[in-house]
Amino acid sequence: MAERPYIVGNWKMNGTRAMLSEARAIDRAAQRYMKVEVAVAPPYTLIHAVHKEAEQIGIGAQDCHSGAEGAHTGDINASMVADAGAKFVILGHSERRQDHAETNELINAKIESALEAGLRVILCCGESLETRDAGEAESFVLGQLRAALPIFQDPADRLTIAYEPIWAIGTGRTATAEDIAAMHRAIRALLDETFGEDVSAKVRILYGGSVKPDNAREILAVPEVGGALVGGASLSAENFLGIVVGASEAEEV
Ligand code: PGA
After folding, report:
1. Does 1 fall in a domain?
2. Which stretches of the chain drop beneath a pLDDT of 70?
3. Cα 14 to ligand 1 centre (Å)
4. Which of 79, 172, 184, 203 pairs as cysteine with 224 (C-beta 3.0–4.6 A)?
5. Ligand 1 binding pocket includes 164 (Cβ within 6 Å)
6. What DSSP string runs through 171-200?
7. Which ligand 1 atom is at minimum distance from the Cα of 95?
8. 230 CB less than 6 Å from ligand 1?
9. Structural domain tally of the chain?
10. Domain range holding 25?
């Protein structure tokens, strides 16, 4: 990892106020690993509370609506999550794509509105096992990105990509270091082509999918990997901090 590693916890649909003690523990420990940038995306209901507790870690949302305020019952837009204290938003997660039929076009609209609201964006991409077995993983992932990357808003240093093979999410399976490196190189080439090398160099590419304390160091030592997006293991401060430690050790290799 050349740049400051970025370790982001995605709590998904987990967490009540009882989880604030985990957030506090993560925040306190993050102050000891300043070489690693640590962030957490709790559910909407906890964004403000975690933001008030946290001194060191970044707080983000797991999604936002693409529109301005208005008649959209149950939805929350980018300026609302920013107002609650979020500094970034995760967009295009495979669970959103699957559970809510989110298309690349919708994800693109969300990215534009999030950047306009001043948020940083973590754009997720990743292929199914079927697509990988068919030898189409790279073209599929690059197609997702080509269709979703922002056109109107300059991403400058506010964009992060998370490559998360769907078959590795929550399954205990991880991609091999070679497959991760190859996909990250392909994504980097697309970013260079789309934004130019200077802007692309500021975009970190994270890996996600069953990252745990015991595999973090190996994954994060892959030179193309700029950090990790962590689901299950981010729900316990102990496990999540094991990954932060792995990142700080991988940095020293
Ligand atoms: P996991 O989830 O770490 O539980 O596999 C990763 C993610 O979905 O971001």
Report:
1. no
2. 1-2, 252-253
3. 13
4. 184
5. yes
6. TS----HHHHHHHHHHHHHHHHHHH-HHHH
7. 8
8. yes
9. 1
10. 6-252
